[in-house]
Design a protein that fits this description.
Blueprint (H helix, E strand, L loop, with lengths): L1 H40 L7 H30 L4 H22 L2 H20 L20 E2 L2 E2 L25 H68 L1 H20 L6 E2 H18 L4 E6 L8 E2 L5 H11 L6 E10 L2 E9 L7 H18 L4 E6 L3 E9 L2
Parallel strand pairs: 4-6
Antiparallel strand pairs: 1-2, 3-5, 6-7, 7-9, 8-9
Helix pairs in contact: 1-2, 1-5, 2-3, 2-5, 3-5, 5-6, 5-9, 6-7
Keywords: Membrane, Transmembrane, Transmembrane helix
Protein name: Signal transduction histidine kinase internal region domain-containing protein
GO molecular function: phosphorelay sensor kinase activity
Length: about 400
């Protein structure tokens, strides 16, 4: 179970990891490609791998900060809505990292500062000579410093600067490459957060769609199982009525009912079934109804003989046919039930009409139609069309659904 969960988590985060790997490979390959083009152009004779390694070492602190941000700071602080804490920790961590890097490898800056200070000391010992830019008639030398508003001019070459080591601790941080490195770290953190937020939104949308799908499937199953007991209750009532009237018809009805139950038990659990099986089911149901009624009830059926590979949700049309026989047949008057289905292009046209003698709708009839409308809405969204025409002598239902 843990392996399956780990594999699923790996697949979910694989695109995000691939982006990070691609970006870091580009960063590492930039100095190599630059040296290669210099070699091709003739500027250098051999690849300067030492310079490439130095650049890679300079990139190493940023890679360290990226790993900490990607695995610790972003998931446990930023994505947990602790934005202020995240910003403070990120700044402190970046400052500490770059300070440690400067302490570990200070040779180049220190040597450069020592060289500058040694030149200034040597120049002070030798004494300044006349400068070409001094105006004629004006004294020159260190005893008459340049002044601006009564203060020594900092731009004057003889203006003494305090040694680098005697400055306050925070001053060196704002001189040299520190601000540049902090800016790069800020851009790197921002890029990391942007990628994480993007893929988090994608994963949230997928989870929401999966949740909606599960909810829809649960509601569809509930509506379908609400239709089935209603259907079998009416069928059993029909068989009960035939037992005393015609035993042979009752036996034949039980056979037809067994076929219907086999379809409901083994086929209706599928999300889609072939239209031919659904029409076969409707034919069995209509034949069951023919056994019950006399010749005064005219039953017309028109189904296509070849439906090809068309598929439909199971038990999609039987509720209309069931209501037609239940509310459209009279034992005292001539009645009719007409069922027609056609496949026209990319649509299925279903029409069910019946004589209308029972104007008052009982509670169960209303529940059946409401369930049908809910199921159609869940299955097809806005891609279906259901129209019901209830007149004085005819109840007509027309349904258009797309071909699956």
């Amino acid at each position: 179970m843990k392996k399956v969960f780990a594999r699923a988590t790996y697949k979910r985060y694989l695109p995000e990891m691939m982006i990070y790997i691609a970006v870091w490979l580009i960063v590492l390959m930039v100095p190599v490609v630059s040296n290669f083009f210099e070699l091709l152009s003739g500027k250098v004779e051999v690849m300067r791998w030492k310079g490439v390694f130095i650049l890679w070492l300079n990139v190493l602190p940023f890679f360290f900060l990226f790993l900490l941000n990607n695995r610790v700071l972003a998931p446990f602080l930023f994505l947990k809505q602790k934005v202020v804490v995240y910003v403070v920790v990120a700044i402190l961590l970046s400052t500490f990292t770059f300070w440690v890097v400067d302490m570990v490898s200070p040779s180049r800056p220190v040597m450069k500062r020592q060289q500058i200070e040694q030149r200034m000391r040597d120049r002070g010992k030798e004494g300044p000579g006349p400068r070409e830019h001094d105006a004629p008639g004006k004294p020159s030398g260190p005893d008459i410093p340049s002044v601006r508003g009564g203060r020594p001019d900092p731009r004057h070459s003889d203006f003494p600067r305090p040694p680098f080591e005697e400055m306050p601790f925070f001053v060196p941080l704002f001189r040299g490459p520190f601000l540049g490195r902090m800016l790069i770290a800020l851009l790197m953190f921002s890029f990391n957060i942007a990628v994480k937020l993007f893929f988090k939104s994608v994963r949230d949308q997928e989870a929401m769609k999966e949740l909606e799908h599960n909810n829809l499937q649960t509601e569809l199953d509930y509506l379908k199982y609400q239709i089935n007991p209603h259907f079998f209750m009416n069928t059993l009532n029909n068989i009960h009525a035939l037992v005393d009237i015609d035993t042979e018809k009752a036996k034949q009805t039980i056979v037809e009912l067994s076929r219907l139950m086999r379809y409901v038990l083994y086929e209706s659990n599928n999300r889609l079934i072939s239209l031919s099986k659904e029409l076969q089911f409707l034919n069995h149901y209509i034949e069951l109804m023919r056994i019950r009624y006399t010749d005064k009830v005219r039953i017309d059926v028109s189904f296509p003989t070849d439906t090809g590979e068309v598929q439909v949700p199971p038990l999609l049309f039987v509720s209309f046919v069931e209501n037609a026989f239940k509310h459209g047949v009279s034992y005292q008057h001539a009645s009719f039930v007409s069922v027609c289905l056609q496949v026209v292009g990319e649509e299925i046209h279903f029409v069910c009409s019946n004589s209308n003698y029972y104007r008052s709708e009982d509670q169960h009839h209303g529940i059946g139609l409401d369930n049908i409308r809910k199921r159609l809405r869940l299955l097809f969204g806005e891609r279906y069309k259901l129209s019901i025409d209830d007149t004085a002598d005819c109840f007509d239902v027309q349904l258009l659904v797309p071909v699956s």
